[in-house]
């Protein structure tokens, strides 16, 4: 449930970086969606303080990360205004960081030796094939996220993330037989209402900007030409 607070941190950092102006309606929309997601995934019975703090820090850092990404995408002078260029520069840093953490905490070499997924050539090819497919999908998703941030903003990305959570929950019910309680269904309904409200908010805001630009167009009066 703590992870569901990520859109709140995204919104707060958007206010701090000046990407969004503080508006009560926007805060209410994000709060409604977060409340819906919390109700949807509600059901945890065991609380662990260390886990809580780790997930909370991860949610805060996630909000900061996406806003810094938007900041990079807006810096034309750095040559990172293109999502592909941004990913090109950031990927090596992310790879080295994740590889270091994996070697320190997961000890992947010993796991490869003992894992049944790497005990034969067929299993090795199968495992690497599945990882390649997952890597390709992750790359496509990351590029889509960067293009979405470039075209809109991080708040819209967080709303899209909530939509993704709803799709995942729905698929888990359909394919894996997960059971949702009435409270979970209420949360699902509230989240959908929040998404609809956000889209209506963005549409209304876009129309207001369009009308303001139209009113700024100077009106030229026709004058008679004298011979």
Automatic annotation (TrEMBL):
Membrane topology, record value: Multi-pass membrane protein
Membrane-spanning segments: 24-41, 47-66, 87-105, 125-148, 155-177, 183-201
InterPro entries: Sugar_P_trans_dom (IPR004853), TPT_transporter (IPR050186)
Annotated signal sequence range: none
Presence of the UniProt keyword Membrane in the record: yes
One Pfam family, short name: TPT
PANTHER family the record matches: SOLUTE CARRIER FAMILY 35
GO cellular component: membrane
Organism expressing this protein natively: Phascolomyces articulosus
Subcellular location(s) per record: Membrane
Domain of life, source organism: Eukaryota
Keyword annotations from UniProtKB, A to Z: Membrane, Transmembrane, Transmembrane helix
Domain Sugar phosphate transporter: from-to ranges: 1-199
Main location: membrane
Protein's UniProt name: Triose-phosphate transporter family-domain-containing protein
